[in-house]
């Protein structure tokens, strides 16, 4: 609902419209709290019912004005400044059951916040309920079974740190303050995915609270169809309270780092990459990036992780390192967590950000030419890739609900800036850059997409009709709709 429309219809509209959040300004003055239903209509929540709900939870229930409310409603992307009517900061799976039940019974708009990294801001909502999992961040590792059990709000750093402490690892993404929840449910690309597959390929099971308020255990043998849908179907089927990942023995001292060249050498670097990349071993993860320094110097680079014997990695990387005149070669044997955290500060919380991506089947000469021509010397923007292929490609197209198995890579243009006055120009520049690459892509990765909503159904490809049946079975009322939404059949 448009805020203006809401203000026109609400009693005391003139006062409410001058305040930052009309729903909650009214809350403290009356016996009810204004909220929004899943289809955008206004509704009123009895304050007594809200108090009773708060009393049932181990964690706090917050409304505007409560200490902690403003911090909790903020998510990573500073472009999203929304005010849920309630925030249920869950401390247990039991709390999640209560929160889902409370929301369903009142048909409230529901946002689920895992790590809060959703680019389009789907983990927060205006006027509904935010089911906030930030305190459910424990990761327990069973080294004998080689399983890491991550709570629904754990961050990738929690997962990597707990697993590596036992000499084990699973695929995690490239910025360590990203949430395990959204990351995994959308697929989960990381620097080890050519070796071990996507995060969903390592998922052995999960615990999920579905729209009916039931806490279910799912795996290949328990509710297998729901388990299939979780692996790529986003948050469509419920609130996942636990993810169980298969782990792999891993020497954390890996040959890894960044290698950079001046932009003038982009053609040599990218043409070499186009020929070489589809032939490299599954131990090698490397993909191009293009950035501009604050001083305006363009750099083309590669991020490298070699997940095997460093001596073999040195041999495999030798031709890459021999290209032209390298500006900086930071590839060396170093702790895996150095690279896993080196972008954390750049992508800090509160930055304003936009991203567009597309999946690429083959790195053709046409794409290489487009990469070079599309480059914009704008320090707010970057081009980068998430390399796939390898183990990602070895999983069948419909073995999970993630459809883009035949892609070799994902091309991404993202922007980051601080001043709201730059929103329009930064987004326009990123769109223009990506538009030059778009003809070489087919489908996109929903997790790194600011505006995929209108094409969500098509992007699930052949998995969509099966996902729709599953959605009808577990969430016919579409309670969980702030995601890459699957419409119930
Ligand atoms: C800086 C940055 C770096 C990134 N790097 C990578 C990367 O390397 N690889 C990659 O694959 N992706 C990456 N991403 C994309 C990332 O995977 C998505 O943004 C993902 O949605 C983040 O998960 P989250 O839990 O932090 O997000 P949230 O904003 O909390 O949630 C995102 C979506 O997932 C749902 N959700 C979250 N947790 C749960 C849960 N427990 N149960 C049910 N639904 C849930 C939410 O409802 C929402 O729809 C990155 C994003 C950012 C901002």
UniProtKB/TrEMBL annotation:
The keyword Cell membrane does not apply. Residues 1-29 form the signal peptide. The keyword Hydrolase does not apply. Residues 79-250 form the FAD-binding PCMH-type domain. This is FAD-binding oxidoreductase. It holds the Pfam family BBE. PROSITE patterns: FAD_PCMH, OX2_COVAL_FAD, TAT. The lineage of its organism: Bacteria, Pseudomonadati, Pseudomonadota, Gammaproteobacteria, Cellvibrionales. Belongs to the oxygen-dependent FAD-linked oxidoreductase family. It comes from Parahaliea maris. One of its GO terms (molecular function) is FAD binding. Keywords: FAD, Flavoprotein, Oxidoreductase, Signal. Gene3D superfamilies: 3.30.465.10, 3.40.462.20, Uridine Diphospho-n-acetylenolpyruvylglucosamine Reductase, domain 2 (3.30.43.10). Its cofactor is FAD.
């Amino acid at each position: 609902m448009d805020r203006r429309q809401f203000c026109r219809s609400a009693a005391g509209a003139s006062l409410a419209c001058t305040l930052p959040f009309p729903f909650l300004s009214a809350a403290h003055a009356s016996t009810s709290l204004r909220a929004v239903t899943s289809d955008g209509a206004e509704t009123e929540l009895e304050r007594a019912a809200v108090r009773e709900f708060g009393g049932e939870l181990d964690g706090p229930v917050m409304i505007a004005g409560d200490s902690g409310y403003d911090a909790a409603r903020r998510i990573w992307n500073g472009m999203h400044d929304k005010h849920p009517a309630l925030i249920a900061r869950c401390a247990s799976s039991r709390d999640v059951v209560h929160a889902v039940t409370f929301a369903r019974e009142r048909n409230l708009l529901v946002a689920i916040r895992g790590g809060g990294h959703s680019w389009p801001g789907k983990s927060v909502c205006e006027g509904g309920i935010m089911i906030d999992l930030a305190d459910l961040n424990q990761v327990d590792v069973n080294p004998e079974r080689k399983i890491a059990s991550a709570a629904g709000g754990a961050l990738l750093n929690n997962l990597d740190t707990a697993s590596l402490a036992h000499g084990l690892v699973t695929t995690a993404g490239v910025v360590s303050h990203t949430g395990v929840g959204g990351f995994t449910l959308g697929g989960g690309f990381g620097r080890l995915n050519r070796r071990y597959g996507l995060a969903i390929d390592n998922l052995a099971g999960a615990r999920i609270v579905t729209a009916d308020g039931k806490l279910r255990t799912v795996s290949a043998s328990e509710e297998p169809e729901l388990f299939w849908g979780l692996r790529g179907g986003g948050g469509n089927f419920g609130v996942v309270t636990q993810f169980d990942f298969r782990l792999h023995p891993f020497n954390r001292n890996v040959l890894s780092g960044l290698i950079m060249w001046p932009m003038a050498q982009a053609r040599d670097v990218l043409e070499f990459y186009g020929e070489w990349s589809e032939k490299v071993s599954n131990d090698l993860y490397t993909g191009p990036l293009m950035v501009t320094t604050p001083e305006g110097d363009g750099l083309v680079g590669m991020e490298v992780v070699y997940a095997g014997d460093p001596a073999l990695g040195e041999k495999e990387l030798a031709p890459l390192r021999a290209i032209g005149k390298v500006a900086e070669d930071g590839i060396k044997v170093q702790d895996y967590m150095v690279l896993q955290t080196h972008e954390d500060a750049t992508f800090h919380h509160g930055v304003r950000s936009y991203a567009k991506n597309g999946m690429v089947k083959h790195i053709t000469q046409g794409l290489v030419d487009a990469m070079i021509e599309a480059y914009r010397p704008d320090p707010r923007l970057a081009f980068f890739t998430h390399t796939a292929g390898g183990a990602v490609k070895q999983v069948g197209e419909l073995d999970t609900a993630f459809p883009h198995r035949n892609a070799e890579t994902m091309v991404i243009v993202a922007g980051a800036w601080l001043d709201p006055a730059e929103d329009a120009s930064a987004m326009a520049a990123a769109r223009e850059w990506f538009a030059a690459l778009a003809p070489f892509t087919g489908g996109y990765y929903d997790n790194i997409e600011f505006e995929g909503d209108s094409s969500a159904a098509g992007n699930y490809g052949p998995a969509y009709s099966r996902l729709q049946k599953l959605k009808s079975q577990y969430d016919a009322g579409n309670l969980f709709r702030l995601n890459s939404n699957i419409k119930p059949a």
